[in-house]
Amino acid sequence: MKFLFALLFTISTAHATCELSFPQANLCADLIWTQGPVVNQASALQLKFDRAFAPYKFKIDVWMTSMGHGSRPVVMRSVNDVTLDVSQIWFTMRGPWLVRGFLLNDAGAVVEKSETEIRL
Amino acid sequence: MRWMVLLLLASCGDSPLFNHVKTPDAGRFVRSVEDQRFPRSNRAFDLVWQTGCPSFDACSFTVNLKDPLDSGEELFAELWMPSMGHGSSPFTVRALGPTSWEFSDVYFIMPGNWEVVLKIKSGGQAIDEIRLDYRL
Predict the structure, then answer these.
(1) What is the pLDDT of residue A2?
(2) Do A71 and B88 touch (CB under 8 A)?
């Protein structure tokens, strides 16, 4: 019985710790910063999904809600079917930023969005 | 103490080195400016944006100086948004010749008033500077 509760708890909280969570697609991704995050220098991260995100496509950007602007497009490189390298992330000023992830369909339309805040 | 106060007062206000010159067409996006001059060295230059700019996608522009830079000098450019107190990501610079440079990967990340800041640097220090206004 204890094992069952532990298993249920693990399943129910597994995605709660995700930095980017896509419940409709049952996908979860964590951000592993490999450079930064820093202001006015290039930052980089590795995005690790809990399973392959295909058939979806994936897009990521950074956004500063308080100022109403983003930054230049990031550069994405697929490492394998669960890992993406994201580089050329430029935070152009101090303050709260959102890292936003988008799942896209074949036509390029956003089917699900998730975001996580970082403060610089 | 008196000297300290004088020193602090002297550091206020605009830099006497950089008389920040605005373009005559401030408030518009002028795709091509000719015979602009750096205020201190009086060096003349043209700046031309690529076709399709302004845009929120990657833009580029070229700067042509009328005369070559002196030895040890370099041309530097950046975007600045004075009302918001931030810039954008650094440009990619390519020398097209002894008096000509292309600046690409220029991203206007939001609408509003932007400045293209051109600096002549020597030994890593700005020795002359001009700011050109662009409105998106």
Answers:
(1) 54
(2) yes
Find the angle CA(A93)-CA(A95)-CA(A101) to the nearest 5 degrees.
90
Please enumerate in sequence order all residues whose Cβ is within 8 A of that of B128, keeping only pairs 6 or more positions apart, or say none.
B18, B38, B39, B40, B41, B43, B119, B120
The Cα A8–Cα A5 span in angstroms is: 5
Question: Against a cut of 0.90, is the pTM above it?
Answer: no
Q: Which residues of B touch A (CB under 8 A)?
A: 58, 84-89, 105, 107, 109-110
Pick the residue from chain B with its C-alpha nearest to A63. B109
A15-119 maps to CATH 2.60.40.10: yes
Q: What is the mean pLDDT of residues B100-121?
A: 95
Its ipTM equals: 0.71
Contact A78, A70 (CB under 8 A): no
CB crowding A83-118: b at 16 or more within 10 Å, else e: ebebeebbbbbeeebebbbbbeeeeeeeebebbbeb
Closest approach of chain B CAs to the CA of A7, in angstroms? 46
Q: Which tokens go with B41?
A: 């060295």
Summarised one tens digit per residue, pLDDT across range A72-114 is: 999 999 999 999 999 999 999 999 999 999 999 999 999 999 9
Residue B9, classed as helix, strand or coil, is: helix
Half-sphere exposure at residue B4, Cβ-oriented, CA atoms within 13 angstroms: 1
Alpha-carbon separation of residue A82 from A28, A58, A88, B6 (angstroms): 10, 11, 20, 62
